[in-house]
Queue: 3 jobs
Job 1
Amino acid sequence: MSEPLLEVADLRIRFHTRRGVASVVNGVTWSVRPGETVAIVGESGSGKSVSTLAILGLVPQPPGEVSGSVRFEGRELVGASDADLRRMRGNDIAMVFQDPMTSLNPVLTVGRQITEALELHLGLRGDAARRRAAELLDQVGIPSPDRRLDSYPHQMSGGMRQRVMIAIALACDPKVLIADEPTTALDVTIQAQIVELIDGLQAERGMGVVWITHDLGVVAGLADRVLVMYGGQVVEEAPVSRLYASPAHPYTQGLLAALPVLGEHRDELQTIAGLPPDPSDLPPGCLFWPRCPKRLDARCQTERPVLRPAGPDHRVATFYDAGSEVASGA
Amino acid sequence: MGAVAVSRQQRWLAFLRVVVANRLAAAGLVVIVLLALAAIFGEFLAPYPPSDLDVTSRLQPPSGAHPFGTDELGRDVLSRVIVGARVSVQVAAIAVGISLVAGVLTGLVAGYYGGRVDTVLMRLMDVLFAFPAILLAIAILAVLGPGLTNAMIAIGVVFTPIFARITRASVLSVREEVYVRAARSLGASDARLIALHVLPNVLAPVIVQTSISLAFAILNEAALSFLGLGVQPPRPSWGRMLFEGRGFVRQAWWMAVFPGAAIFVTVLSFNVLGDALRDALDPRQKSAIEARGGGGPA
Amino acid sequence: MLLGVSVLVFLLVHLVPGDPIRTAMGPRYDPEVYQRLSERAGFDQPLPVQYGQWLAGAVTGDLGVSFRTGRPVMGALLERLPATLTLAFASVVVALLIALPLGVLSAVRSGSKLDYAATVFSQVGISIPDFWMGILFILVFAEYLQILPASGYASLLDDPVAWLRHLLMPAVTIGVVSGSILTRFVRSSVLESLGQDYVRTARAKGLSERVVVTRHVLRNALIPFVTVTGLQLATLLGGVIIVEFVFAWPGLGLLALQAVDARDYTVLQGAVLLIATLFLLINLVVDLLYAWLDPRIKY
């Protein structure tokens, strides 16, 4: 297997606010290889988006505080100089954001927003930059790309805008693409198109893709590996098929149970009761304890579980053991 | 009703907390209290009767006997500044009172009834708004003639549109709320609906605007008196004193400097307090500040 | 809008208690002149007819004659217009020179000492009476340092240096007050724009902070700012009127105040109408500028 492109190790992010310190990401470790798709799944507030912003050095410090390690092709990015980070952003690692309605600048043409990255990292100017930008629009499936270069974002539909965002991200042939819920704000049919588009582009280019989502359903057809985040921690990590077949963490089990199944009628959608933990007031024990249907009182409440093996390439952070329950029940 | 009362009480508590936490706002409040005292008890606080002429001590620079010096007629500038507070407070309070009542009523009616009533009323407000405030006040005073009462009316008229606009905007946002529509469908009368449901929601922005308007009313009154259109001598007023002092800038700087400083400090206090009020009472502004202070991309 | 303004301006004069011509003439009352002025003013006609005549005249540039001097009002206004336009324009320049850099810097370095200083400056600027600041300037620069003239006006064409020396203090007085208000608006609109998603996109492209601010933030921040500036010009024009009085600057504001003093109502009427028209014109320009800045708006 090839060397990892991007390695995140024990990443921690805290925000200093007037109400105290909020620990948003609490020791996260993962990596992505060329051609691989890693999905990071979690509710909003689980720290999944912030941790990817930290990779690009886009967490404002202060009030933020980032520690741990992020390596791109072996180079350390945490604490790297602003100039080094800028050279890497959009060039080696690019990002597609959640809301294409607000993520494009309303007063600049689409073409300008693509060419500025080409100008910066590849030194392309004038006609050359324009030609390349049109190629990119073509690649992301925008019809009559030449004419579209002079459009403003408000003249395009949401799906088209997200394609533009992808074109911007791909402009400089990045080795890693981080997609932060790129389909959440779109219609279901458009969602499928965007997923397909990114999947195809990845196959073509051999990029590593980090796909952030709150929806385990999106992940199924597209990821190689899945990380489930809760309260700023990775609580479970497994190859996608294994995760679906035998989820080991009660939280993952809850997420899967909440998925609507096509053709199956349910009287009510199952959800996990309760709220995610307040990052400025984390409980001492397992972060999921207050909502956990399988909790074992004393230990879960006082001791925080760490990731432990739960099968081939499968790790989980819980004291609950699905196997033992079956065993003891027998 | 209980819920509304609690939230209002909480807002006032929030305001008090802001005042205590913000030393600037506290200082502003102190100045305003002093100003009110000066306005009420001016003659008792002033070291000299404000209109006492003393030809033997004309144009005296500041000294122990006359901390702010004396003017061209030998009157004590400090005493006149203290007593002059009354005109400022009186004109500002009554003028803002006029615009508050007129503007809020206009805004309520326009916003609540909408349609043609709204169009006509707000057009009228727009027309008033199309003039620089001071120009309109000058024109009104030119017609009514100079004087204290007319200055109040002029400033009151000039400040009406802003209250009307703010009120109308709040009313529009409340009018379609579910609970208001529910109350209407239950047969509540318009007056009852406005008093019980619409007015409380209009309150916060109006209170903030009142504080800001007081500051500008004091500025405008001083400007009008400075132009000779406001208070007529011999009644001491800060604007008028500045006008007189302007003629003696070369010989007696204190005649212009101290009354102007009094206007400045007063207006500053109202503005600082207005900002604190806004922070405490206007939820939108408050959330903007919290977003800046805490949290981050998540 | 302009129609509403004209009705209001017209009514102002006709609501004057008593006989405005007689009042205006004061002790120099001359029955023959009175008769002539009275006929010219058409006071014997019903009000709507008078308004129609006045408006028809105003549209063609005839605003009647001064009750005091008998001269055409339009001539007097045009004579004073350049001085007011000069002062207003110079003040806007000063205000923008203060507000744009200060507002942008304090937003970009929000929470810094510079931001705090800018906040204090704008609070002071908003609260300070412009006429007092003008007097303080005169005290310091004209009386004490004696480096600038205390009052008056010089034509740019006759003597550019004198023109600038006379212009400096009044323009700075108005500019500081307007500039401090605008600083707040610049700061808040830049802050708002900085928090937008497209700024994050721009940063994720690897653009430097300078390019992010100049290319992505500023243009967007200017859109709300331009609207506010248009409204702010009303305050600025108000400041012009008072500051013209402080520095004896022979513009429309001073003319209006002299007309109030002399009870010369036709001149006052004309001056108020012209200033209000100027204000509306400026706002029209602002609307056009707005459309030009924001591609989402098309007229």
Job 2
Amino acid sequence: MNALLQTRGLTAFYGDAQALFGIDFQVDQGEMVAIIGANGAGKSTFMKAVTGLLAVQPAQILWQGQPIGGMSASEIAKRGIALVPEGRRLFSSLNVEENLLMGECAERKGVWNLLRVYELFPILKQKRLQASTSLSGGQQQMVAIGRALMSNPALLLCDELSLGLAPIVIKEIYSAMPRICAEGMTVVMVEQDVSKAREVSSRLYCFQEGSVSLQGVSSTLTAEQISQAYFGLPNKHGAALP
Amino acid sequence: MMDMLLQTLMQGVLLGGLYCLFALGLSLMYGVMRLTNTAQGDFILLGSFSAVAGIAALKWLTPDATWMPLLLSPLLLLIAFGAGFMLQRQVLNRVLGKDPLPSLVVTFGLSIVIQNLLLELFSADPRSIETGGLNIASVQLPGGWAVGVLPLLILALALAATYGLQWMFDHSALGRSFRAVSDDLEIAQLMGLNAKRVYAYATGIAFMLITVAGVLQAMRTTVSPSDGPMLLLFAFESVIIGGMGSFKGTLIGALLLGVTQQIGFLFDPGWGIWFGHIVFLLLLLVRPQGLFPKTVG
Amino acid sequence: MSTFTVTRSNRSSRTAMWVAVLLVLTAATIPYWAPEDNRSAWMREFVEIACYLVFALMWNLLAGYGGMVSIGQQAYFGFGGYTMLMLSNFAGINPFVAVPVAALCAGLIAVPVSFIAFRLQGGYFAIGTWVIAEVFRLSFANMSMVGGGSGTSLTAFTGISKAVREQTTFWMALAGMVASVVLVYVFLRSKRGLALMAIRDNEVAAESQGIAVQRTKLAVYVVAGLGAGLAGAMYYLSNLRITPDAAFSVNWTAFAIFMVVIGGIGRIEGPIVGALIFWVFNKFFSDYGSWYLMGLGLLAILVTIYFKQGLWGYAQQRWGWALFPTQRRLD
């Protein structure tokens, strides 16, 4: 079993309100897995739980076989899980290069460094001393990805990479993915764009109202199956109902 | 008349140098962790009185070595850093959060504890540090004016501290972490930063600045345990006038405050500080963001 | 689907209310049954505690419910005291009448002050209010007609016997205290009060619900100023001698913070419990001077860190006690 990250019956609460109702999830070394679902389906909550921003039961999240649920975010980052957050969330007082350097706080060794990130996204080298907020949406997304890569993670989590970006920019961003994965990086991406998710991932999960409504090999899932799982409609295979 | 005005201006600038040192620690702590240290003035006095006591002890131990106090300085700074670090780690980190009240109550409580502790240990009598004549030494400037050596030294230290801090923020890894946790605490933690430790470093540095300010204040004039609140208000006004988030702004704010107070003193000794407060409040009314607020993109 | 009922009071709160009414009536008759030689002292002490309580209650309203932490409410305390004194000494107004008038004046002056104070938020708002209080202090300390820095005395009582003065002052303080508690309680149970708590919990969300945030905050600030002014006017009615350093001392706020934090912020019972505890401490320990104050400070720090809800709040959580229920329960 090469399971890198595994969740077993993951439940999560915001105060008294339950947001996740027992998620079983797994990603193996070297895989690219996508998570799709409507707004409010629990995708972001799932990301928060895995990265340590939301407290959960320890045994519900296993990382390289070890329980990490409820650990602090900085601890988890040091163990090799990096997040490209939804909406980029770059540090506004830092310039491009300083944002990238923040990835080094995880104190992990690996192939990724400033030089390689600049090779991946040459435009960033050009703008390295500019305020991060002066960049376009797509360029900011590159910085966010680069920043996560700088921590040399074993697992890269991407939350809504394509949010608010023009199609041509999305294409440019995703064209970098193969090079990232070539080093054996494991990636989990949350994507609004369902077709993109199916295109780039080997497996995908569909979340619906805090539960997994569908999972399977991306290329074998039909559009009909996916849309039914996405919207929570009853389907002839007896999948989850609201 | 012109002479007197220029003299007042100069006195104000020199006074402002000291206010800047009062204010830098406050600005740092607020900038990094949104903590308002209402005990700032009292910690400054703690620094003053520690130095007074330390020098008295040294004098008693080694009465002939007049250079002993100089040896004390780096040790005092080290102790100050440690004290600030521990205070943040053990006490202040527990009360940081969205609600400003707990940290305000705790720092206010500390203010009262320190004031009364100093009162018990040193009584209400004003004290000062012997400077061997440094505090009255003066140097002649072209134009026929005399400027005190100590005030000049203080201003120089203030400038060094301001630019030093700014440099640290802009060019060091620690400075980067300070800016990162201030911008977005959650993401900073996701990057692997231990916010609690970063905060402790910030407070440690702030305490070093506080101690320098305290020692200089005791050299320049007399200090008594109840001075705390007044020093806090001067520090606070300097930060607000200058604009939050900028050390250079704090420096300018402090200089302006010093000048304003000196102008007030010209009219009547009783109205000097009042005038400073009034100008501060008027500025708040007209330009609440201060003169040089850091533009957060 | 079950039906929901919204209830506010429970049995313990109703019993407590009757106990409170009984206590107030008993207290009102103290001038008649208190032992001859202690009567004066008891009444004076009661007035003092009443003033502390009103001040703390108003500070709690502002900080705990309004979310505005101020270290400058002593500005209105001293202003109330001085205004009462000036109206009595110089305008020939009966001092007992001057008290509510002075309170109103304090409330009025809070309006222009708020224009400046509201420029700041959070911790800086707190210190900003302190600066304003200092301006008040320095201003009055430079007014020679009220004795400048050395202060002055209330002279308008010549011609009234000591007994009458003390009794009327006592009843006035009792009335003022009861009125303040009732006022705050009624306010918090009202729609305005709910709006206030909504603002405290989430200002942006409250605004989106149509709550006039700025106006509500101003209203609370003015009421708190009025209350502080009342406390100050009452205090110096009893004390007869006023100085700027005492009237505008930050210690008033320090004690209020202590009372509210120990008792529990954001609850009406909090300041009352805190005031009682404070009075007890004062009785036994105030002779220890600086050590006493140090102890108070340390206690406030410890309670803030370990008993975030204050001692009464802790009791409320543990045992469900509530004297002044303002929260609505869903059953």
Job 3
Amino acid sequence: MSYRKFFRKLGLFLLTIPVFLFIFLPVLWLFSASLSTQVELFTVPPHWIPEHPTFQNYLDIFFPSQAASSVPRTFAVALLNSIKIASAVTLICIVLGSLAAYALVRIPFKFNLPIQLGILGTRMIPEVSLVIPLFIVASRLHLINRPIVLIITYMSFALPYAIWMMAAFFQTVPIELEDAARLDGCTRLGILFRVVMPISLPGLISTTMFVFLVAWDEFFYALIFTSTLAAKTAPVAIAEFIGRFAVNINGMMAGGILAAVPPVLLALIFQRYIVSGMTAGAVKG
Amino acid sequence: MTTKAIRLSQRRYSLRQKDAQIAWLLVAPSLLVIAGVTLWPIITTLVLSFFIAPTGINQARTFVAFGNYLEMLQNPAFWDTIKRTLYFTIVSVGLELILGLAIAQLVHSRPWGWKFLRFSLIIPWAVPTIVNGAMWRWIYSADFGALNGILLQLGLIKHYVPWLTLSSAAMNLVILADLWHTVPFVALILQAALAALPEELNEAAAVDGANAFQRFWHIRLPLLRPAILVALIVRTVEAFRVFDIVYIITSGGPASKTITISYLTYLYSFAYGKQGTGAALSFLISIFTIIMAIVYIRFLYRPEETQS
């Protein structure tokens, strides 16, 4: 019996190996490339582990003044742009979204349901269906290549997403708590900030993380609306360089790793909020 | 009614009215923003789709009614694109569900290191799509890529192969890259759903002599339906409008063999300077997306099961 159990465990463990390989081999290869020199990267067959590993590609991005190539200089700025834009989008979505979500979940008023369905519907609209009018207006207002245009347009997917997620979390707050607070003379806003928000803190953290992740990940609007260093985000910088053979690919790989670090770190730190967030955001749309 | 009761009901009425006012105040900022960045643009897109609209701002637009739609529906390239997009959607979502379910079940069986496995699944899911695409493009690289390197060292190929220029392989390679990012998402959702299932049923079935496969097929799978539905809808809608990963890995090549419907829309709107056609195409994508969501919900949605 225990023999059988042991072999079962062993069999299951062997099954995990291909999964681990599929997950980690590509990342390790990316990391290895980011530590390589140009010369070593262009070898056949590849040096799987660089013989002369160097952090120069990362140093060039962090201290762009010394850099010779345009790749690290672009990445330094693009990463900063990404941080600014994703943070601004997240902040606005959390503030506006939590107010709206609370009203939709807990206050019965005319048009409550139509508004909820409308917000659900907007989540089905692809960016590509919105981009042409937005682009025309943005160019008339001379907003192209300004970070503000991305902050505004990202609202089209981030805000409905944030409202839905937070509505799902607010719904789990026991209504009795709110009633008690009301009897004690608490106003609606008082209830929201003193009762609902503190109780739904895990939900708020989850929403914050998810909105930051989708804003960081966004590529299509960024591609259409930005082309200069003033607002270009990290994904656009990567897309721009990948096609050109002459640029230093190892520098680009370092940029790719750096662009992946913030979302991966966030997700790993807050991993226990991920699944609740996935289902809250997904079930509802 | 006594005067006291009337006064009380009046107070309750005014309280409710005040509540409604507060609700509107709370909802208004979000509504204004959403109206500005989604409602207004989608209506404008619909209007635009009835015109021939050159990209230049001051160029005149000509009303053509359903001309743009008809032109597309009669264009064989459009139907090729639809076929390719459906191929991408069906193959990638199908494999995601199968592999995601298998990995979820594997994690659920608690092999050695299962916590680390669950932890690891988060990484590909969190890596930005464009980084993922750039990484795979470099892996597939004709001159110095890892895929060629591995295959050569294993003796499976004699010379490096320019993978992304092979019209038979390109789309499948894009799908593989997409799977790296999406299988973990499906696996994480389904694993959480499996963990939430009651173990008693499973144990009772085991006592009754059902083998592992029977227990999975007849007990777990039906209970998993709501979670599978969620994964299926989210992933189908996303896969059908795939753009980023195609743009970064193949840019539609070789010879349009990886152009998907979103990519075609992008080309019409921003490369060919035909915004009216682009608008019509993008509208078709929206309609298709909504139809798919409705069909799925009709087929798979059972209200009594979704309460968990």
